[in-house]
Design a protein that fits this description.
binds flavin-adenine dinucleotide; three-stranded antiparallel beta sheet; single chain; FAD/NAD(P)-binding domain; globular; 18 strands; alpha+beta; D-Amino Acid Oxidase, Chain A, domain 2; about 375 residues; 2 domains
């Protein structure tokens, strides 16, 4: 997703672009993601502003790509599941209201009217409504962006992994691929998502990046008629094309452990579906259609990393958690910079901040903080139980 957006913006800006993709376009984490507009959970202010601006960028792309449908607007409903969540959600609503983002409290009756598919649990007394939301079909957008890039002269090579680079005088002078391609370029843009650190390391550069697993389950078609995105602390649910529903839970992610064991994935996927059935009775006859484990590329402070790596002068990185939502804007800003005009908006996201900070980096993005807290909470529960 991030590579497609960046390649398209660069080709539109007049650059000669070659895209090297190890597998298939729109695969990677962008094929195993919850893929919603994440603005409501983004902090600090610079990342929130970037996220809101990226929602507008999706809108601009909709006008530029008539007939391509990947963005589905949907409001979100959120309620507390355990005590600690109340204060976190209240704080979030207060913050969003102060930042002029539409967030309000509604009654359970109003929530039921907005989302008739929902069997609201008894503990849900206060429900937060965020009107401006969306879910995305990432693969559709990635393919459309690369088609547009190709129409402007870009070349895309799939099934061709970057395996080595040659550096000289602090620059990459050649990129080599598994299929034997040799490419020299003024700038190499590393958009390899969770593999971005590995690609940077080929050139001897350091890119601090965590890789955090997440399970995304898609149900078979079911008569839920779900219209909204639901966030119930330990379960996230959204509509999907073809009357399907997509499920995700940070708590369940914690139970994936260090690597996906497929029998375990099947058990966890069923657990997710069982939980979802309690909220959406329309899922009674549904089964798990797909269960995919994605690897989130998470910078240590949770913020995107965009810019040249200091160790290799022509190696530029664009990597972000929440990359499906942020890709259109990050891609355009990166292209602006590579065409000679560095956007001020990118300053908080430069790689140097992480390289200077070493290990002692605070997590600044609330969504990443919450994710880490929930996953480590669940791991502790697991180790207590075990
Ligand atoms: C469970 C889960 C939930 C999520 N929820 C959301 C959400 O709600 N909203 C949101 O915006 N984001 C969400 N994310 C994060 C988001 O999916 C990622 O940030 C995003 O998909 C990253 O996109 P990318 O293009 O950087 O990486 P990828 O999609 O992984 O693409 C990287 C590409 O690089 C290729 N590659 C790797 N190594 C090489 C190499 N050596 N040579 C050539 N090519 C290579 C790979 O094949 C891949 O196609 C979620 C992620 C997970 C796992």
């Amino acid at each position: 997703m991030v590579g497609a957006a960046t390649a398209c913006a660069l080709a539109e800006a007049g650059a000669e672009v070659e895209v090297l993709e190890a597998a298939a376009v729109g695969g990677g984490t962008s094929a195993a993601t919850f893929a919603v507009d994440v603005s409501r959970v983004k902090t600090p202010r610079a990342l929130f502003d970037l996220s809101v601006a990226s929602a507008s960028e999706h809108g601009a792309l909709e006008r530029a790509l008539p007939g391509v449908v990947w963005r589905h607007r949907a409001a979100s409903l959120e309620w507390a599941h355990v005590d600690g969540d109340h204060s976190r959600i209240r704080e979030r609503v207060r913050r969003l209201q102060a930042w002029a983002f539409p967030a309000e409290w509604i009654s359970p009756e109003r929530a039921r009217a907005l989302e008739p598919a929902l069997e609201l649990p008894g503990e849900a007394k206060e429900i937060a409504l965020y009107r401006d939301g969306a879910w995305y079909e990432a693969r559709v957008l990635a393919r459309a962006l690369l088609e547009r890039a190709c129409a402007r002269g870009a070349r895309v090579y799939e099934d061709d992994r970057v395996t080595a680079t040659t550096t000289s005088g602090g620059r990459i002078v050649e990129v080599r691929t598994a299929a034997g391609r040799r490419i020299d370029a003024d700038v190499i843009v590393d958009c390899a998502g969770p593999h971005a650190a590995k690609v940077a390391a080929l050139a001897g550069a350091t890119l601090p990046l965590r890789r955090l697993l997440g399970l995304v389950v898609t149900t078979s078609p079911a008569p839920t008629r779900l219209r909204t995105i639901l966030a119930a602390a330990d379960l996230n649910v959204r509509p999907e094309v073809g009357e399907r529903v997509v499920l995700h839970s940070w708590r369940v992610d914690a139970d994936l452990g260090g690597g996906p064991q497929w029998s375990r994935v099947a058990t966890l996927a069923s657990r997710l579906l069982d939980r979802a059935r309690a909220l959406l009775p329309g899922l009674a006859g549904a089964h798990v259609e797909s269960a995919r484990v994605g690897v989130r590329p998470v910078p240590p402070d949770g913020l995107p990393i965009v810019g040249f790596l200091p160790e290799v002068r022509n190696l530029y990185v664009v990597v972000a958690h929440s990359g499906v939502h942020l890709a259109p804007l990050l891609g355009r800003l990166a292209a602006e910079e590579l065409r000679g005009r560095a956007p001020a908006r990118l300053e908080p996201f430069r790689p140097a901040r992480l390289l200077a900070a070493g290990d002692g980096v605070d997590v600044e993005d609330e969504s990443v903080r919450t994710m880490l807290a929930q996953t480590s909470g669940a791991s502790q529960e697991r180790s207590r139980a075990g």
